[in-house]
Amino acid sequence: MTGNPENGALTEIACDESGSDGENLTGGNTDVFAHASVRLPLETAAEYVQEIRRRIRSPATEYKANHLLRDKHRAVLESFLGPAGPLRDGNAHVHLIEKTFFVVDRAVDLLLGENGDGDEAVTLFREGPRTFGERGWRDFLAASNQLLRVRNDAASTVPADVFFRTVDTLRDAHSGTTAGVIVGRLAAARSRAESYRERMRDSPVLFPVLNPLLPAIVSTARYWLAGGRSVRLVHDRQNMLTPERIAWIMESAPLSDVQLVAARSDARVQLADFLAGIARKLASDELNGRGDPALTSLLRPYVGTDSVWGDDDSGLRLGTAEANSAV
């Protein structure tokens, strides 16, 4: 799907993601989603891919981030991310999404919308676990995820019923606390939730609110569009990227072109795949208190400050401290 740039040549940006669990953000395999983008000539990217293959010497047909993340290849990883590597000097960018915060942010936005104060998602995310306890917080996240997700084929109960039963319980048990007040405001917004579920039943969904890929692509595009560039995104093929959704992305950014390719056919996309997988793993390690300070410092220059990140301590280390709301 192609548009016409107004001035000059297109800047081609290659993209890939890591950590996709669709709309299952609270019970999936990963707690971080990463979308990486790379700006390099195809020939230069191919040379770097070959250099990585030469140094790692794995018989694998297609290399992935886990090849670089192995302890025995630490030097290759540090070289890839480091100041002498292919990605520095403004040639790469990473958009991170902390999945549980993304769920909280989307739930607050849906139910409070223009009635919110802009900070309630961050406050609830940070106060909720210690106020509600581990089980109460887990129940809130699971109920929020179920309420918002488009498909609930396996659910034996009505998503809105589960959600409002959960927030009613938390509100009553923790009245007078900051987190209890916020869930009380959510509990009073049942009509908005039921309207949302009705739209999900009756209309094809162009933009599932819980899938992080689409807002991540838009954020990536806006980063590269800064300065008035005309930008073409070259993205790894994804089932989510239907023609209708690509049209929405191009209008939202706006981009001049979006091209879908198989990752193994484009060395630039392979480098973006490496970076996305590395960033997801390192960010997850930081989030869970097992980060490697040296590797985190190498990742930090690539991390976008518009990443969707609620945890303050790991955000400071990763460079997402200014990121408190979703796209």
Q: Any overview of this molecule?
A:
The chain has 327 residues and is α/β, with parallel strands linked by helices. It is built from 13 helices and five strands. It has a five-stranded mixed β-sheet with strand order 3-2-1-4-5, sandwiched between helices. Helix 1 packs across helix 11 and helix 6 packs antiparallel against helix 7. The N terminus and C terminus are likely disordered.
Compact description:
By secondary structure, this protein is α/β, with parallel strands linked by helices. Helix content is 51%, strand content 10%.
Layout: helices, strands, pairs:
Blueprint: E1 11-18, E2 32-38, H1 42-56, H2 65-69, H3 74-81, E3 92-98, H4 99-112, H5 120-148, H6 159-173, H7 178-187, H8 190-202, H9 213-225, E4 231-236, H10 243-252, E5 257-261, H11 267-287, H12 293-299, H13 312-318
Parallel strand pairs: 1-4, 4-5
Antiparallel strand pairs: 1-2, 2-3
Kindly list the characteristics that best describe this protein.
single chain; 327 residues; disordered N terminus; 51% helix; alpha/beta; disordered C terminus
